[in-house]
# Entry
Amino acid sequence: MACAPPALAPIPSDRPVIIAHRGASGHRPEHTVAAYTLAVQMGADFIEPDLVSTKDGVLVARHENEIGGTTDVALKFPERRATKVVDGDTVSGWFTEDFTLAELRTLRAKERLVLRSHAYDGQFGIPTFDEVLALADSLGRARGRVVGVYPETKHPTYHRAIGLALEPKLLAALRARGLDRRDAPVFIQSFEDGNLRTLRSETRVKLVYLLGAGSLSAEKLRDIATFADGIGVHQRMIIGADSAAVPTTLVRDAHAVGLLVHVWTLRSEPVFLGKRYGGDPVAEAREFVRLGVDGVFGDFPDVVAAAVLGRERLP
Ligand code: G3P
Ligand code: CA
# Structure
């Protein structure tokens, strides 16, 4: 008789979750198998794929549908440059919706930021969402623990308007892997409330509404709680960067209406790190843990893990 595989350790619920922002994107080119794999090795509970669509309707992991800044598309398809209006912004470059998956398979990822290492440029392809789900599953099984996936719908209204709606494909991919359930190790995130409000009636998967600035009234938070399980907020909405900054009441206010609070995006380089942390990125992550957030997005999952787990080294 075949033995059942051992149960995987669940993602702990008694501490903030460690969310690898675009993978371990501080160490490897973002949204690559290498970045996601390293993130899990560093202790990430969740890997985060941002999702856009190909011309033939396949979800792929890229931060935006314009891919000139994160791939070698300009070298391989110079004639395919285009100018479009995306969510009100005029953007020139190369767009995933103009390429089939087969064409995107020929590209290689590169680091977006000048200030980060380019040693891995040209080595890794663009993963599909289904490949990210498969990767999370296999990385988790290899380690005996659940690895979650935290997909973000990028430009959902735009994609729907061009006939490439993201949400049906996203839900189909989750359903195919038995992940369309309340207790799945999945959060779906969006900066648009419209698609989250619709998704609320289509899936029981946890939903997170992203916000980049401003304050949130109790009334607004109560409204968000009707369609989302949590908010994903810019770190400065919780505390400013200066030494004298005082925390807002956002974490407490959101918790009071039953919303989880996840904070983004911690980055270790001096150009991003608030003055109040004195050059110590672990101190920054520790502060958000102390302030009671339920999850931390970081480009450096090793740093977030050090703060959350009290771990200063790789496992
Ligand atoms: O999803 C949380 C955070 O990633 C939002 O910002 O622009 O990096 O997707 P962005
Ligand atoms: Ca994101």
